[in-house]
Amino acid sequence: MPITLSDIRQAAERIQPLIHRTPVLTSETLNRKSGAKLFFKCENFQRAGAFKMRGAANAVLSLSDADRAKGVATHSSGNHGQALAKAAQSVGVPAYIVMPRTAPKVKQQAVAEYGAEIIFCEPTLQAREDTLAEVIDRTQATFVHPYNNERVITGQATAALELIEDTNELDVVMAPVGGGGLLSGTALSTHYLLPRARVVAGEPTGADDAYRSLQAGHIIPSEQPNTIADGLLTSLGDKTFPIIQEHVKEIITVNDKEIVVAMHLIWERMKIIIEPSCAVPLAALFKRADDFADKQVGIILTGGNVDLSSLPFS
Amino acid sequence: MPITLSDIRQAAERIQPLIHRTPVLTSETLNRKSGAKLFFKCENFQRAGAFKMRGAANAVLSLSDADRAKGVATHSSGNHGQALAKAAQSVGVPAYIVMPRTAPKVKQQAVAEYGAEIIFCEPTLQAREDTLAEVIDRTQATFVHPYNNERVITGQATAALELIEDTNELDVVMAPVGGGGLLSGTALSTHYLLPRARVVAGEPTGADDAYRSLQAGHIIPSEQPNTIADGLLTSLGDKTFPIIQEHVKEIITVNDKEIVVAMHLIWERMKIIIEPSCAVPLAALFKRADDFADKQVGIILTGGNVDLSSLPFS
Q: Which residue in B has a C-alpha nearest to residue A42's C-alpha?
């Protein structure tokens, strides 16, 4: 069943107690440098530090009472794990997060701080999936996939919903693409609310499976992705790909150097902390500046969880 | 003549076209960690990256037409130089900024980008003052002191004015203290608008001349200051000291380690970029948490101009 505008609006209302309505910021300097008029939806200020809180909250709050008691589970070494843990904690639902032993200490701590049970596994996809299956078998918890899940996609769609509500008629809405949860949600909200606007994604060249999938007309999995934008390593899923195929005009790929330049500009000029993944759409816009000249462009800044002791600026 | 509330309100109106009304942000995590309710006035998002834009704009816009044509001059290797250059550029007034040859390239570039003429000098106070005197002799420009100037103090007072307008009754208003321009302006606005509130300053122990001046009852100049909070190295002036003496309840000193801990917390939890100097009031609050328990505390975050390639986090 397709996700409707009514589903997205209901999700927005449902998750409202668990999320921040994040601000939309602008920057004269970045407008001047880009030649476009930019509106940044600051999900880096979202609770748990990323838009992932929206999808996680929608998934948790959509559970039946019986399923709430059993809890939620996922495998994630990143923002989705933190978001699911925090969303679950906020409403007293148990959360089980499978993480590779090699996950950064700071991410382990964040998940633990949100009261989730962490189950460590070897750092392979197989080990993650096997461990998750064991956990679910033991607990009967509901698996909340980081992106290939309609509740999650619907939750992520609320970021673009708010962006569109808080700006005048946008010509373009941009988001980065990894597994496509945010991008497909963004595409749906834009399709329903601003049917004339273009949805354009940015993707790292070192993890350009979505670009290649769109060209090929079928999902091409991400193999050995290699990019500084470590939130965008995953492959599209069978729930995100069809939405993207239908509603996303274009995916522009950018290399790590272009990503770091855009990231540095946002840090330096806007004085806000964003992850490398966030900078991908702005890098894409700079790369093809002529296509965006004088346009009103909404850009979703996805998150701000970076390791401050190891930054790519020198 | 004392600075009145009407002066401050007029300045707010005068500078409004040249400044941003910066947001007041809150953080659940920092409230929890501090035990107080904190309201951060984000002057790191101000034009030119710091509150200094307010005082500079007020000084430039208060000039007579004849003086506008001659321009403004100052010596500064920091935010005041950038702010004066940008304020002057915005209204077509020439600006002359004396900088030590050793000033960081990034600061030189910022001042140059704002169209000011940079005059380099040797990195001593004597050389700065001599060079500035020559420049003023040559150009007849008006000297705009970074803080010991009533127009500047009145401009800086507008930050607290906005903070107070945008929050419910604050119990405490906090700012860092260097030369005292911001602190004296903050103290005046708070005195007029929230007479029951306490004004408390934070100061680095490595540059604690204001603390010692307040104890002694007369200005004790800053000698060989040494702190990471490089915006707070200057001494109080004869225009800022009396206001601080009359209206500031207390100055709390904090060491560099405490400053970096507070700075890291703001970066990590609020996802915003602030200078070390900004973190001084929060560090002071943490140091004396019992004094602020359950209080509503407004904190002015002064600026966000940091060298991203050299951060104190490890």
A: B271
- Taking alpha carbons only, the member of A182, A195, A171 closest to residue A39 is A171
Q: What value does the mean pLDDT take over residues B5-14? A: 98
Digit-coded pLDDT (tens) for A14-23? 999 999 999 9
**Calpha distance A182→B26 (Å, rounded):** 26
DSSP one-letter code for B24? E
* pLDDT (0 to 100) of residue B64: 97
Q: For residue range A55-92, list pLDDT tens digits in order.
A: 999 999 999 999 999 999 999 878 899 999 999 999 99
Name residue, tokens 């499976």. Answer: A209
Q: For residue A174, which phi and psi values (nearest 5 degrees)? A: -120, 145
Residue of A28, A272, A313 lying closest to B271 (CB–CB):
A272
Residue B118 and residue B140 in contact, taking contact as beta carbons nearer than 8 Å: no
pLDDT single digits (tens) B242-257: 999 999 989 999 999 9
Asked whether the beta carbons of residue B314 and residue A313 sit closer than 8 angstroms, the reply is no
Residue B298's SS3 state is strand
Give the residue-averaged pLDDT of A148-158: 98
Strands of the A250-254 sheet, one edge to the other: A24-25, A37-42, A296-301, A172-176, A198-204, A250-254
Instruction: Look up residue A234 and give its two tokens.
Output: 């995953």
Q: Which of A267, A304, A309 minimises the CB distance to B308?
A: A267
* Shortest Cα distance, chain A CAs vs residue B44, angstroms: 7
For residue A50, give how far its alpha carbon lies from the nearest alpha carbon of chain B (Å).
Answer: 11
Three-class SS state of A171: coil
Q: Which helix (H) or strand (E) holds A73?
A: strand A72-75
Among B83, B203, B76, which residue's Cα sits nearest to residue B132? B76
Distance (Å, whole) CA A22 – CA A54: 11
| B298: confidence class by pLDDT, cuts 50, 70, 90 | very high
Angle at Cα B153 formed by Cα B258 and Cα B102, nearest 5°? 60
Phi, psi of B59 (to 5 degrees): -65, -45
Cβ contact A247:A188 at 8 Å: yes
**pLDDT per residue as tens digits for the range A43-62:** 999 998 999 999 999 999 99
Q: What is the pLDDT, as a whole number, of residue B103?
A: 85
Q: What percent of chain B has pLDDT over 90?
A: 88
Query: Which residues on chain A place their C-beta less than 8 Å from a C-beta of chain B?
Result: 23, 25, 28, 44-45, 49, 264, 267-268, 270-274, 304, 308-309, 311, 313-314
CB of B172 closer than 8 Å to CB of B181: no
Partner-chain contact B272 A271, CB within 8 Å: yes
Q: Using CA coordinates, name the residue in chain B closest to A303.
A: B271
| Span A221-238, pLDDT tens digits | 988 999 999 889 999 999
Task: Report d(CA B144, CA A162) in Å as an integer.
Answer: 44
Distance from C-alpha of B16 to C-alpha of B100, rounded to nearest angstrom: 32
The whole-number pLDDT of residue A244 equals 98
B6 to chain A nearest CA, in Å? Answer: 31
What is the model's pTM? Answer: 0.92
Exposed e or buried b for every residue in A161-179, given b needs 16+ CB within 10 A? bbbbeebeebbbbbbbbbb
